[in-house]
Amino acid sequence: MFKIIKNRNYKEEIFFNKKELGEILNIYGSMVAKGEWKDYAIFINKNIVGFDIYRKATEKPLFQIIKNLKSKVGQKYYLKDQSGEIVKYSDELKNILAILYKKNIRLIK
Fold first, then answer.
1. Which of 6, 31, 68, 105 could form a disulfide with 36 if both were Cys (CB 3.0 to 4.6 A apart)?
2. Across residues 6-11, what is the average pLDDT?
3. Number of domains in the chain
4. CA 49 → CA 2, 3, 45, 52, 91, distances in Å?
5. % of the chain exceeding 70 in pLDDT
């Protein structure tokens, strides 16, 4: 027999959800297969969670996909480049990933 425990302190968003992580790993996997990206790291903070993409494990992240858990309107997700500058803010992850697809299509050609 299972009991459902209701924790009122439980925060619904503490990480990327399954769909978000699947979308991120989809582009990551395709770029690894093409030899462009080599490694990744996931970090979790009280207010943000991030997915860092590396060309080489010893370098700074090539890109950072960040989800702000305490976001303002229109700023839930953002993308940072290797220099740490924010490339794009969006309320939808697909808009952030579209930037990565465009940037990486240019890298491959």
1. 31
2. 54
3. 1
4. 31, 30, 6, 10, 15
5. 82
pLDDT single digits (tens) 9-26: 555 567 888 999 999 999
Q: Which long-range contacts (CB under 8 A, 24 or more apart) does 45-48 make?
A: none
Q: Identify the domain containing residue 37 by its residue range.
A: 18-108
Answer for the pair 63, 79: CB distance below 8 angstroms, yes or no. yes
Residue 43 lies in a domain: yes
Residues 6+ away with beta carbon under 8 Å from 71: 91
d(C-alpha 81, C-alpha 85), whole Å:
6
Which tokens go with 76? 């839930």
Is residue 5 a part of any domain in this protein? no
The predicted pLDDT at position 105 comes to 60
Element (H, E) at 28: helix 18-33
CATH of the domain at 73: 3.30.2440
